[in-house]
Amino acid sequence: MSSTHSTHSTHSTSGTSSTSGTSGRVVVVTGAGSGIGRATAHAFAAEGAHVIATGRRSEPLAETAAGHDRITPLPADITAEGEPERIVRAVVERHGRLDVLVNNAGIVRSGALGTLTPDMIGAQLATNFIAPVLLAQAALPLLETSSGVIVNVSTSVGQRGWPGNSVYAATKTAVELLTRSWAVELAPRGIRVVAVAPGAIDTPIGEHQGLTPQRRAAVRQWQLEHTPLARIGRPEEVAWAITRLAAPDASFVTGVVLPVDGGAVVA
What we know:
Layout: H1 2-14, E1 26-29, H2 35-46, E2 50-55, H3 58-65, E3 71-75, H4 83-95, E4 100-103, H5 118-146, E5 149-153, H6 166-186, E6 192-198, H7 205-209, H8 213-225, H9 235-246, E7 257-260
Parallel strand pairs: 1-2, 1-4, 2-3, 4-5, 5-6, 6-7
Helix pairs in contact: 2-9, 4-5, 5-6
């Protein structure tokens, strides 16, 4: 019992530094080629962190890193066998440590019950749920050494019913349970685990999903009608929440899922 208390005390002391203490930290951001992932990579780099930006496509990652010498693009398919371990090896080879893992990558394959195929279900499970588990597991030794932080990205609509997107919502709700479970499980090892749950955010996820412009407009209208602040959020607003929850000043915060949704969850 006394050794556990000592671990917590050491971690808490390191967390009392100001936000400038984020300088020099090493951060991995998945799905960093666009949207929330790109904004998060930029936000951490602006604080002085070294960012490994991962994603499936090399060109968007290069755009994320352009003009930011603290961002290193690392093309990787996090669902492929052995890729979580390869990402961690690349982090070790380049920086020798890891302080923050941001599990942001996610895909949507919309469909009502009765239209779902095994491929639609499996792709979402692989990217949104299984990959974060395996990447966090691969990164665990580094995160324990640094008293690091895992930040999972969920969705605020996953806390309500989402007709036509039940599988996506279910995978993201599962990530919230992972967050709470890992927070308790990893606390004795000095690792914090938190999550953000974005609402309607201006990202290209609709285009990636293959929705027509008309369908995207209809989705946006529905989102606006269910968002009390009556606007679409910006990726930078979600990135702000991610960096704040991962900051040393948040050293006594773990297991929380923070909605960044303009009030959608409570409406």
